[in-house]
Amino acid sequence: MADYHEMWAGLGLDLKTHDMLLEIVGKGYTDVFLSQKNRPKGMEYFDFVMSEVHGLRIKELLDAKAEGRKVVGTFCVFVPEELVLAVDAVCVGLCAGAEFGFDEAEKYLPRNTCSLIKSAFGFKLGKVCPYIESSDLIVGENTCDGKKKAYESYKDIVGNLYVMDLPQMKSTEGRALLKAEYKKFALKMEEISGRKITVESLLKGIEIANNKRKAIHRLSALRSVDPTPISGLDALLANQIYFYDDPIRFTASVNALCDEVEARIKEGIGVASKGTARILLSGCPMAVPNWKVPFIIENSNAVIVGEEMCTGERGTQNLVEAKGKTVDELIDNIVDRYFKIDCAVFTPNPNRLEHVKEMVKKYNADGVLHYGLQFCQPYQMESKVIERELEKDGIPVLLIETDYSQEDAGQIKTRVDAFVERIKS
Amino acid sequence: MADYHEMWAGLGLDLKTHDMLLEIVGKGYTDVFLSQKNRPKGMEYFDFVMSEVHGLRIKELLDAKAEGRKVVGTFCVFVPEELVLAVDAVCVGLCAGAEFGFDEAEKYLPRNTCSLIKSAFGFKLGKVCPYIESSDLIVGENTCDGKKKAYESYKDIVGNLYVMDLPQMKSTEGRALLKAEYKKFALKMEEISGRKITVESLLKGIEIANNKRKAIHRLSALRSVDPTPISGLDALLANQIYFYDDPIRFTASVNALCDEVEARIKEGIGVASKGTARILLSGCPMAVPNWKVPFIIENSNAVIVGEEMCTGERGTQNLVEAKGKTVDELIDNIVDRYFKIDCAVFTPNPNRLEHVKEMVKKYNADGVLHYGLQFCQPYQMESKVIERELEKDGIPVLLIETDYSQEDAGQIKTRVDAFVERIKS
Fold first, then answer.
1. pLDDT on residue B1
2. How much is the pTM?
3. Residues 303-332 of A with CB under 8 A from B
4. How many C-beta atoms surround the C-beta of residue A375 within 10 A?
């Protein structure tokens, strides 16, 4: 990586702390990803992206800003990237996956707040996130209580927060609320960019986002094969980079990876031997560099074959219909797609259980590991139902509740080992 | 109390466990309430109600049912009692305030769920709540994540649950959603009762509910005096019984109590000496028999002078305008009142902070004790803001986070003692 210290200083980062953070994440990346055997060569692109995640990618964002384009930072798959792209702005994910600055964060947040939220505060307060600092607008959304209420303080800390309301039920009124919010958001995008959303620009945004999803769907489908041709860690990485990278380049890179993976399948090459325990991950999102549980699983004689997560198929499933004569019609199509997202903040949310079952079948999973962030009530609540319903169908389920610390890694490893033994017996 | 075992058996209660529960609650009541000195004589009515809370009051409900009236059980101050009364049904609160059946509850709920929710499950699963068993309809509502998601399982357990959606923001769309939900609820009331809501019946319902609120407002206002003429425990009890008792009888009893309290004020009679530390309670609701923290406060050289809680002024403030030519107009008035409730599930929720400040002034409080149930994210989140903003104005704030167990009573007592010392120094 080139020397970006001047760029980081310009963004107001705390250089010393930021250097430390990069070193830790870099070391973690080496241990978790580069230690893997028999990886597809196409993963080199993603290794490069990760090595430049605070470097070249930030430079690209700043170059885009210099050209007058806007950067929109988001925390949730409910923020429609299509509307961001329609004003030629850049959409980047801001969720953080490391225990950093939690002491500072707890001045604003109760101790009993999930790590994902604490991390968003910690990275801002500790001045170590160049994405937050590059964003012209940061978009929050009323999903869970934790985020919804935390944004009230976050607003004061970041200064450029826009909060999007969300419904709690998939009712007629709920859909109307979502549409009203998306229309407001479209106006906001026009306002910050000084550009008008047209049928043409929105169709282009829809196409870019759909293509990104299609590429990820293609990669996911290839994981149904035994032996699985790509590790869950690598597939998760692609799903994580989905939120940061230039979407067109990302799509091309995922498709190139898929070409290679298809060839591997023909040759019978896998990352683990045929018959290795196949696990479906389900639950809370895993933001970079939150690789703890997947790393444990794939170092316990098992492979991950799918992610029923926001950083996975919950976030990418379904396309927006790219057909419409007016911007309003296209926004309706966008609402149709996003309203299907089966996030646990909705009540009731039967589609998620169905989706987990479908994924188990589609990817030939032997069992499901439900990943719950501590204090994440919506997913913790649903985990009980998923466990009950899947076990009833004879599908083993392991509920893991954890945070961003490494303290429980040994305990989780023991439980995963026992689970793998159970599902292969 | 007469022998109600036959009635309880008829409701399907677990008689042995229920007897044990009544014994414990009865003993707690004696220790907490009857041990108080210098109580107004008018509290005898409330003592009687409490002694018959599972007896005579349940018999009244069953008698009403025998006459064809319906019983509607609720968990939240957002359920408009006016619409229940307008079909001549009876509205009763179902929130429980005791650690009971938590092991059973945790089969459905994550460990990290607040005691209020666990209790609702524990009382149903343990078959010890005659109110739940007498209810023709149980109404849940999408307030916090915990309740919203818990109702998905509760529905299966109780069989007669109706869930009301709620907005998360006080926007135009939010108000429209609340109105749509109240109209649906009005239809549901008509459906279960076989009665039509008319302008006349709804005006009557509004009047009954308003009168109940006015009586409580009157009692609250009398607590601004030093020495305070009634204990916080007794005032809380009235606020708790507000949810159970026949509303007209309750109103008359509170007004009779107020007459007496006014006389006491004239004579300078107080429950504690002039100059005793005056504390405003703020935060999560306290359902019967959750008296732990108020009991500690009032046994630590302090008196409670107000409750900024659902079982208090958050629940009772504001009246419904009793004027309108159509049912729809009256429902609009109802929406106007309820939409003002400053529950922490709303974002942003600046009115609550203002209300706490107003109450501090109005009741001449020396400090605020914020009562947060463990894992209640909305109130825990707001407690940080309340603490910061009030301390900035020189108003001492103590944040207590607890559950329904008695284990931390000693620790809380130590903290309250120190707090009282601080505010009187």
1. 73
2. 0.96
3. none
4. 25
